[in-house]
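Worked Example 4.2. Consider the chain below.
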Amino acid sequence: MDKKVVPGSNPKEEVFSEKIVFINRVTKVTKGGKNLSFSALVVVGDGKGKTGFALGKAPEVANAIRKGITAAKKNLISVPIKDSTIPHEVIAEFGSVKVLLKPASLGTGVIACLAVRSICDTAGIKNILTKVLTKSNNPINVVKAVFSGFQSMKE
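Applying the procedure from the previous section yields the following structure tokens:
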């Protein structure tokens, strides 16, 4: 799901693209029965090098997505982009996930899994090669690993 936010009456408001990476249904069993809630992993970016992610949790899917989008806009980071790709190769880790991010030549495109592809699309990266090097492909940890890799990059 890709959605563009239309700027409102505020002329300084930036236009962000939003992507929903993962929606998880969580059930808590209590004495009174089962309590159902949802968590939504959302990635937000302006397509010019700024991107952020957040996990929104709520009893309904729409509210979880809305919470995730507002939290992601507050946690934006700047991604170094050089000729529509990243400046250098980096191996990033978070938890048990290890991700390889490698610059690609012009015309290669984004070769990545769903979680990494959505981050690259919202950040404005057009050419990149990526690989999740571990067995674990938990989308939350993959997204956190990619963001730690982007933060460790040098211009």
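The CA atoms of residues 99 and 132 lie 4 Å apart. Strands lie at 2-4, 17-30, 33-45, 50-58, 77-78, 90-94, 97-103, 110-111, 128-132. Compare this with Example 4.1 before moving on.
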